[in-house]
């Protein structure tokens, strides 16, 4: 089977990450409970007329996707695969509110049509005039990982040569407030702010110079902390590795009670490995792991870990293999292996 290489990685997030030259050089400290992304100049990629008809998630997705293609020097991908937990939630809210306000009568379908989860992937394809394979995954916090797995399979089975993959979620207006109310009633709620973002990558079976390799990915719906250790060890063995081969680990800590899974992984297997955390910068949302993917790609390319994400004093001179681990409320675990 063919290998899978990363030809570009672009992120729109709560930080100044859209510029491919900067790598967390100017970190923004957020104190609010929910934070918007730092939006790029949409006019550079989308006509103002078209942009006015697009919700935030669509605009972020279209712009990040186009920038990823530019960096990869690719005009049209063989497939477009997106992952999103909530889709275009703002349009969903608008449609549901119109049902209430109009007593379920005289409804216009526009907001409903634009609220579907595959709207983002469809708008990307329309802009590129791309009629190739197009799929959207809405698997909660495993949405981006599911898109990655689909892309990896397409490349390995030689059904595609270049695949555009992305994870996108927007804040919306009301839904996130309801989530925060629920979290506030728990014994220990999420500490990092809720946010939004879009991260896209071009994956290819072609190996370019200095290309990062997506070695493998695995998702686990449910597992105890002990079972998780065994599954991770089996995952590494399957890739002819052991824990000593990992130079850095990227963790999705968000401050809730389920961070114990991250602590157990580190203390059991990676106590002497560079520890990277990111959700205090990106915020929490269903596809936040796409930001981690962008972060890991940059760490390997630049051979540098910014001090704002390094959570211990271990800074290896050479970083060749990265492990990304994310979970949500003790479920939907994912491990992604990146290597030079």
Give the helix/strand class: alpha/beta
| Largest sheet, spatial ordering of strands | 3-2-4-5-1-6-10-9-7-8
Number of strands: 10
Average pLDDT level: 92
Distance between the termini: 18 Å
Our count of helices gives: 11
Main sheet overview: 10 strands, mixed
Oligomeric organization of the protein chains: single chain
Question: Which runs of at least 5 residues are low in confidence (pLDDT < 50)?
Answer: none
Radius of gyration: 19 Å
Shape by Cα distribution: globular
Helicity range: 25-40%
**H-E order:** EHHEHHHEHEHEEHEHEHHEE
Strand content: 15-25%
Summarize the structure.
This protein has helices at residues 48-52, 56-72, 89-101, 110-114, 119-128, 143-156, 175-184, 225-238, 260-269, 279-282, 289-302, and strands at 5-12, 79-83, 133-137, 162-169, 197-204, 212-222, 248-251, 274-277, 321-328, 331-339. By secondary structure, the protein is α/β, with parallel strands linked by helices.
Characterise the protein shown here.
With 340 residues, this protein is α/β, with parallel strands linked by helices. The chain is built from eleven helices and ten strands. The protein has helices at residues 48-52, 56-72, 89-101, 110-114, 119-128, 143-156, 175-184, 225-238, 260-269, 279-282, 289-302, and strands at residues 5-12, 79-83, 133-137, 162-169, 197-204, 212-222, 248-251, 274-277, 321-328, 331-339. Strands 3-2-4-5-1-6-10-9-7-8 form a ten-stranded mixed beta sheet, sandwiched between helices. Helix 2 (56-72) packs across helix 5. It is globular, with a radius of gyration of 19 Å. The two termini are 18 Å apart. The mean pLDDT is 92.
